[in-house]
Design brief:
Strand content: 35-45%
Structural class: mainly beta
Number of helices: 0
Largest sheet: 5 strands, antiparallel
Helix content: under 10%
Strand order of the largest sheet: 1-6-5-4-3
CATH superfamily of the domain at 58-410: Integrin alpha, N-terminal
CATH class of the domain at 58-410: Mainly Beta
Shape: globular
Number of strands: 58
Radius of gyration: 27 Å
Distance between the termini: 31 Å
CATH architecture of the domain at 58-410: 7 Propeller
Length: about 775
Amino acid sequence: MDDVNRRAHRQGAALRSALVVISLIGLGAAASSRLDSQEAGETTTAAPAPIGTSPSTETPIQVWSEEIGGRVLPCDIDADGRADLVVQTWGVGEVPGELRWLGDGGRTSTLVGKARYYGDELGSGDLDGDGDLDLVAPVGTHSLGKLAWYEHPGGDGTGAWTEHMLGTVDPKGEVKDLKVHDLDGDGVLDVVVRTLNVVAIYSRLEDGAFRSRSMPCKPREGLALGDLDGDGDMDLVLNGYWWRTPSDPWSDAFDEFIYDPQWFQDATGSWMDFASLPLVADLDGDGQKDIAVAQPEKHGVPVTWYRNVDPMRGAAGWERHELLVVDCCHSFGAADHDGDGDLDLIAGMSKHAEKPELLMLENEGGARAFRRHLLAPFPTYKAQLVDIDGDGDMDIASAHSWTDAPVRVFENRRKPMGLDAWKRLRIEADLPERAMFVDAADLDGDGDMDVVAGGHWYVNPGEASKDWEARALPAPLGQTALVRDLDGDGHVDVLGTQGKGSASNRSFAWARGDGRGEFQAYTNIDASGWGDFVQGRAWLGGSGGRTVVLSWHDRGKGLTGLRIPERPTEETWTAFTFSEHSLAEDLATGDMDGDGDIDLLLGTQWLELGGDAPIPHILDGIGDLAPTRNAPKGVPASDRCSLADIDGDGRLDAVVGFEGATDLLWYAAPADPTQPWTRHRIAEVPGEVYSMHTADMDADGDIDVVVGEHRAERNRLLIFENVDRGARFVEHVADDGRGAIDHHDGSLPVDIDGDGDLDVISIGWHTKTLWLFENLSR
């Protein structure tokens, strides 16, 4: 997959895609001309693709060709603003394969070339600088890897294409992976290929010739591009290791770093041990690129993702998380498939799987959990993600296999949801102690989201309205601050203090989870003498290793950092002053300045990280806000905050609510975030904003705001629907606040009932109740 914009970070939680599967059995084939005798550049026309409905699942499918199969590449060959599909079929014996492009939904088919095509991936880009898209294709056999590029004929691409041989890449192995990208930043596209034995780079010179560089690599396959180290260029990610791109990739060495040796170790003596499909994407929304890997050949291997903590520390710099098993996963990609603002995983099985399926692994928000959804009961091969119908979401294109037709497009037909149907439920009517935070994660490994608050966690019963079993976290952990995989073993842990309720307590403990609902407590944290009780918490990775940042109610204590050692259960966690600068309230993380590392939002101020010490900046002044009687010393103070791209410009904006003011504001990030941010008013909230989060609540592709009131006569739960990219917000009342209820550090969106929409969990300060607001949109 292409590297996603590193500024793009939206906070959200799970949402199921609304797809409808179409079966073509018994519906009739599209009428098309035989292609065997077609000449290069000749175009044929076929009838529209058939449409129908399958009783098994509900995913819409278009068939673009029932005659050819193989590798598929989406690109706009005819420059009409709509995606076309390039398809390469293998040559067999003396019979050449074909390279052709399909346009107009598969109604037109143009032959690009005939050759003994082999290999597993195609590429496109303007290689000759004339303004149109050229194509790159591998040629050869299993034991011979060659490369050719095809010059676009101009116009609509239906003329004769010219073949140019780039030469032999590997005399002993086929081309497995192929990417087109300007690797060295000189404005000229490079072709990066991996064979069974080497990685090679090709680039066109001014005289039309191509220069190349070949470097040996570990066997056998797997290549993705992504900026892992945040230096602005694309690094090369291979099976279990990655190469850091130097300033001059034509002469300087590519430094090698391991992220998981599993993918290049000879475990069984089979070539399959070295097979992999890696991708690079920011799965947890922290602004840093993570890695995910699937096994394309074997059965029984789980999809695995690796959180980027410190990429140049080797395997210790990556947190490994195993997801579900996907047999023979020969299609693997990342995209916001369900439109909730985070990146989901698309995983497709080849025809070698016992029961081939195309799956969406739905990111539940922050990569806390991934939920399995069946998109289609068909095999796929190197499926590609593309907005085929121009409706703003990602569809999926694939052939049936590396040799077999048809070529299918699986359409993404998600629909926006309403925001006015809600049901209030109690998870716990009377909490044993006041909870400072509420969070959700799959603690017992059963696939649904459990809830953590105070010193207890609550087992999701499977149906929201059923009784929730309360389980105590192991003593002496008494007050939860952070729910996270703290030790990097792939299981969720809990960090907190040894105090009860809001009583001052500076002694910490953490509970190490085993992924099955059992925890072991540790107190190896040296953090005595810091603050009173925790008001905000944040998780940071990077060159300093795993670090937790804490904001205390006592403003004078600054921000405390907890540094997690490499052996978290054996060594002592150390506390340090992260910054003297604190607003003593909420914290939010994200890459606010686009430099590839995480920064910290404090409310109306933020800390620029990545240097020797945090640098404070101000978003904008708030001296003109009208104070309420609750304002500290008569001056409003920022309380809850969140980072999200409100206006869709690719930059992280800030949403801020206040103590002592009824204003709910969002601040548009400027190109230079150290300059003043533009302030916008979302709404007046009479009960003030002590409880707020952001997420795409209606699945329309933008970020909405969830607020729970704290100091009103009736403390409502409100959804502010983002309209026209932050130009205005429409208020929806999810709960009218009847009875004894308030919201404090709650109102967290999460799909609790697994129905594909976002519910809300919340807690109060005055009322010790753990609430669930079930979204009835689906």
